[in-house]
Design goal:
CATH architecture: 2-Layer Sandwich
Largest sheet: 2 strands, antiparallel
Number of helices: 5
CATH topology: Alpha-Beta Plaits
Order of helices and strands: EHEEHEEHEEHEH
Distance between the termini: 41 Å
Number of domains: 1
Helix content: 25-40%
CATH class: Alpha Beta
Number of strands: 8
Structural class: alpha+beta
């Protein structure tokens, strides 16, 4: 059965364990710049929003990429960045409504779900990040979480 990523912004504590694990696994160092997940923080308001590619249904990043560097990976059933084709123009980053793509060192970076076994999921103790079976219930929760995330992003980015 297919799986999907759920991001519940109300549960994130801003601990950044996911950020460190991702950068360590992908780049061999602990650096937000090397991570495919980042945390938007409003510490005064105790708001922490995980920013990660959510493999959304519309894929505006794919449409925005002028060189076709974001392609569907049939083996993992997700969209990924072809780093050799990417020019780092930032069009995908601008197009992403969830702020889940980052330009770092001239290349777009997005979560690739670690090829189907996201390493961040087991270390997310508050369960803000979950990798669940694709069911009607999960799709409903995903829509609810994404709606909440967009509201929170708009509010916190405007401050």
């Amino acid at each position: 059965m297919r799986k999907m990523l759920l991001v519940d912004t109300t549960k994130c504590t801003g601990c950044e364990t996911c950020v460190d694990l991702c950068s360590g696994r992908k780049a061999g160092l602990f650096s937000e710049k090397a991570s495919r997940v980042r945390i938007l923080k409003n510490e005064a308001g105790a708001v922490f929003i995980p920013l990660i590619c959510e493999q959304c249904r519309e894929h505006p990043c794919v449409e925005a990429c002028p060189v076709g560097a974001i392609q569907f990976n049939m083996n993992a059933s997700i969209f990924c960045v072809d780093e050799k084709a990417c020019t780092g123009c930032g069009a995908c980053e601008e197009a992403c409504p969830y702020h889940g793509i980052f330009i770092s060192d001239g290349v777009a970076m997005m979560c690739d779900l670690c090829g189907g076994e996201p390493a961040c999921i087991p270390v997310c103790y508050p369960r803000a990040l979950q990798y669940v079976e694709l069911t009607d219930e999960a799709i409903g929760a995903d829509l609810k979480y994404k709606t909440e995330k967009l509201k929170r992003l708009r509010r916190d980015l405007d401050e």
